[in-house]
Specification:
Blueprint lengths: L3 H20 L9 H9 L4 H11 L4 H4 L8 H13 L3 H26 L2 H12 L2 H7 L5 H21 L2 H15 L6 H13 L8 H15 L3 H10 L12 H10 L8 H8 L8 H26 L14 H23 L16 H14 L3 H21 L6 H11 L5 E5 L4 H7 L6 E3 L3 H7 L5 E7 L1 H4 L4 H9 E9 L2 E8 L2
Helix pairs in contact: 1-6, 1-7, 2-21, 3-5, 3-13, 6-7, 6-8, 6-9, 7-18, 9-10, 10-12, 11-17, 16-18, 16-19, 17-18, 20-21
Length: about 500
């Protein structure tokens, strides 16, 4: 059994590693679309931000439409953050990185509470080197903060149910209230916690009074925001307006991303996007194989943690342990309930991207850590996990992984005369583009081909910038019209961005 001093030395080393991975090259990439929403929101005062989100559910209804699904806590905190530390890529993302580092400690604390020091350390190590958690710790959005607050809420609830101390119940109330003001999916956190308490109400019935008053307190703290929530529900979920019903492959992709993900170079990205596997380079194949290996390793550890006891034969009694039930509810409710809602009612789809359910992943790592701990050859297993994680992490740091608005803007500054019109599709791409492009004269944002056609009247030549077309123009109508009525004179592609220069047909 590991002693306390050794455990905290190892934890310090893991925290150092996790901190380095989250801060290294933090400002290297340019802001992308969603980060443009973040930094642009800091131009308003905090009361203005809260008012806009309260009324429109977004700071920028002109770009996202009313009912976009925002809540105010992250925007308010990041506003104060930039007032103190300033604004650039590194400074804005550091806020998320600090939450990412804190989450490493908190998952250790949850693992230690539920099991022991070693399982907590293994879980902390898995989270520290996880591709997706590093990615969202280096993004100026609320997802890293949401993971941290979820871990804090879960840890507080576990301590409250064990000790019944007022400070633990208070911590649970505060953390859970903060979650509700961070992201709409936080209601699934409440759902898993509520189901757990209902399932074990006999075990915890002596705490019934404090559980009841905690629930009332959370409701009262959230009460001022309920009118805004009702307005959002009336608009319908913003995801469903663009993505529709999720496919099984989308669910598999999200679950795979809990393990790791790919950050290919541009050529391999194009090959994967077009499903041209013969176009993958050797580095592309190594990357794909590495992701498969990481998924298989952690998937095996997860199953082993569920059904095996101390390396002996399968024992399904393990599934009846309240610790395992707590973690399974934490993992399954936030992932599968949104998926089922979206599958049953595509017009109200809410399941889309791993970022919206990333807060469920710590439960997966904790169960996998339990499985690794039970292995006789755990050190070899962890060494193999590190080995296959090296290339995806290397690829993440050497390849750009988000929209290259900085690079695209420089290209346009060098090649586009300011008197030639530039069309950006979709309109909200103005948010990150405007940060890097100083001259906004003769730049027009269009959302669809119906806006594009009349804007072209009288234009002898123009530039067209496309980004995230699968959401903005999945049928390619804007580019299709340009191709059929003008001659393509010049083109270039950056990560997530395509640039075309058209001249009038002769």
């Amino acid at each position: 059994m590991m002693n306390k001093n050794t455990a905290f030395v190892l934890l310090a080393l893991i925290l150092l590693l996790g901190s380095f991975l989250r801060i290294y090259k933090l400002g290297e990439e340019s802001f992308w679309l969603d980060e443009g929403d973040t930094f642009k929101s800091t131009e308003f005062t905090v009361p203005q931000v809260i008012e806009k989100i309260y009324v429109y559910s977004t700071v920028f209804p002109e770009f996202w439409g009313e009912g976009a699904g925002s809540v105010p806590l992250y925007y308010s905190l990041i506003n104060y953050w930039t007032k103190i530390f300033g604004l650039n890529e590194f400074k804005l993302r550091l806020f998320s990185a600090l939450f990412g580092i804190l989450s490493i400690y908190l998952i250790f604390a949850v693992g230690k509470f539920l099991f022991n020091y070693q399982i907590g350390l293994i879980a902390a190590f898995i989270l520290a080197i996880n591709h997706q958690h590093i990615y969202f710790s280096q993004e100026a959005r609320m997802y890293s903060m949401l993971v941290t607050l979820t871990l804090l809420s879960a840890l507080s609830l576990l301590y409250a149910l064990k000790t019944n101390k007022n400070i633990c119940w208070g911590s649970f109330i505060i953390a859970t209230t903060l979650i509700l003001y961070t992201h709409p999916f936080s209601f699934f956190i409440l759902l898993f916690q509520g189901l757990f308490i209902i399932m074990y109400w006999k075990k915890y019935r002596v705490f019934l009074k404090k559980m009841f008053f905690s629930g009332i307190a959370i409701f009262l703290f959230y009460l001022p925001w309920i009118p805004a929530l009702i307005r959002q529900l009336c608009y319908g979920p913003p995801i469903g307006r663009t993505t529709g019903a999720p496919t099984l492959s989308k669910l598999i992709t999200v679950l795979t991303q809990f393990n790791s993900w790919i950050s290919p170079d541009l050529n391999n990205r194009i090959a994967l996007r077009t499903m041209n596997f013969f176009g993958l380079t050797s580095s592309g194949w190594i990357l794909v194989i590495s992701i498969i290996m990481i998924t298989l390793l952690l998937g095996f550890a997860f199953v082993f943690g569920l059904i095996y006891q101390n390396g002996r034969k399968p024992n399904m009694k393990s599934l009846k342990r309240h610790e395992i039930i707590f973690l399974l509810l934490w993992l399954l409710i936030p992932v599968f309930v949104p998926f089922l809602i979206s599958a049953i009612s595509p017009e109200r789809a809410i399941f889309s991207d791993v970022r919206y359910v990333l807060f469920a992943s710590p439960a997966y790592y904790l169960i996998a850590s339990l499985g690794i701990y039970r292995l006789k050859w755990k050190n070899l297993f962890l060494a193999l996990l590190v080995l296959v994680s090296i290339f995806p992490l290397y690829s993440y740091y050497v390849n750009f992984d988000t929209q290259q608005w900085r690079e695209a803007s420089r290209y346009l500054q060098l090649n586009r005369p300011s008197d030639e019109y530039l069309f950006i599709q979709k309109a909200n791409n103005i948010l990150p583009f405007g940060y890097y492009y100083p001259e906004m004269r003769n730049i027009i944002a269009v959302d669809n081909v119906d806006e594009f056609i009349p804007a072209l009247e009288g234009k002898q030549s123009f530039w067209l910038v496309l980004a995230l077309e699968k959401y903005s123009d999945p049928k390619g109508l804007v580019k299709g019209y340009a191709d059929s009525h003008y001659t393509l004179a010049q083109k270039n592609e950056f990560i997530g961005i395509k640039i075309f220069h058209y001249v009038q047909q002769k």
